[in-house]
Batch of 4 targets.
Target 1
Amino acid sequence: MTSKVYNKQIGGRHYMDMVIQPSEFINKNKLQFAEGNAIKYICRHAHKGEVQDLEKAKHYIDMIIERDYGPRENWVEGYNKWKELSMKGVINNKIKVGDLKKLLK
């Protein structure tokens, strides 16, 4: 059952016409800020902000990826890292696992 607080919306009706409002879904699932905003913008894009809302959702999804999985490296950075580790013997199993932490610094 929906709480009374979700029976009103300040400024428009773009959430009121939904089966479940994004804010209710977000709160009941205890989602973090970025996840909540991504869901909000995806849900409302057709009724309010159109492409700009989808761009905002993508922006929040990028924030989540960086926050939870670290910055992504491009293939050149990955290759250079592999080449450096290879020259140090890591790729060819010439190094002890305990020494790997020192080399990665």
Target 2
Amino acid sequence: MTLLAKLLAPLVVVATLLAGTWFWGGVVAPGYFSAIGLVAAWFVLCSVLFGRIGKARPQLRWWLRGTFLACSAASLVAFYMTSLRDTVVEETLPDAVPASQLAAPAAGEPDPLAPQPEPVAEEQAEPESASKPKPAANIVERVGAVQPTSHAATGTVRVIKLAGGGRTLTFSGGFEVDPGPEVRVYLATDASAKTFRDLGRLKGTKGDQRYDIPAGLDLDTYDTVVLYCIPFTVSVAKADLRPA
């Protein structure tokens, strides 16, 4: 048995495990838990296969077995870190007023947003700070409840138009979702997320967090928030946005 064969054996083990994980977990499996089951079954099958090869070729036994055990251990650690361990995020979210509370006032009522008449001068002038206009408010344009699809999930999402310009998507209201590997935040046209804009990786499985919304994105079209697991190609949770 040549040294080249011994050096190639670990590469074959790693390539076989990775290819099977991608195929069974990312292509064949219809959901998150089925993907975990199929990948686990693939590792068991590979253990039997490499064990038989090792018996037939004793010189490769430890090259195959050692690489397989190392890959299995690394996979378990990665699974724990990404799929079992919660990550808590507590970002500061902007205070905002729902758009419905900024509706036009009833007849006869003054419009608080309209220019106001100058006050009558008094003997004692008011402090300068009292005459300054109030700063513009952040406005909640859309809101939705987080709903589970393949994972348990709860919380509230809001689209906030910032007074300083731009819009942000926030997760709050006790937001929590089961952990998963490489979960992305999408604004999509529907729950299938076939057409979407990627806002970035989910920052944490618990707690308040925010994501910038691209300028000019039409939220009448992209009206669904989807948390999407990339490795297992499955939706984790969603929220349908409605006017606030």
Target 3
Amino acid sequence: MDINMPCADAGLEKSTLARWLVKPGDQVAPGDIIALVVIPDGDKYELRIYERGWISRLLIPDGTMVSVGTAIASLSTERNGTYTHPQVARIERYMSEPVVKSSL
């Protein structure tokens, strides 16, 4: 299942995938933060996953400007399987205190 770049703000067409917080093979659960996203005005957001599974591939490298709807990673429900679901991730305002202190 592809994880697509969600829209952070109405009318926003692109965002920068600032940094992945997961790697292929990592298990994820609903609510886990998988990446940090920066929109053009500089606001920072967290990309949270809303399905349980394993990250199978990261399709976009850190620091890349990505169009909304573009596949950025793949998720599977089994370590080596595939999965289909309409919405597996969404962006939320950047709030995590420990992540804010790290450098982008």
Target 4
Amino acid sequence: MVTKSQTKKRAVSPDEADPRFVPVVKAFARVPGFSVMESKSGAMRGLMLNGKSFGMSSHGRFILKLDEERAAELISQGVGKAFSPSAGKVLKGWLEVTSPKANWKALAQEAHRLAAHRR
């Protein structure tokens, strides 16, 4: 028999953030308007520019807001797949990075540049 305490999900501590995400955040540390949003559980961290999201890391996944053409190009190159926050729903221009060889920092810098131009 499983008790209630055994089924509770343990919150993720900040030390358990995906190590690939740390250099991404450090790259933007001094950029005006940049901030990191963290969920209460610590499981999701969002990259923000002037209060608008341009990327996030959640449960080992890295998700970025690009333009639709660039997202499609990266998908065709095998870098990632279209981001689907729930079954049957795909967000246009959002890419979930799936390639273990992808450079998260470089991709985040690209997403940041696009976000800065959308203001």
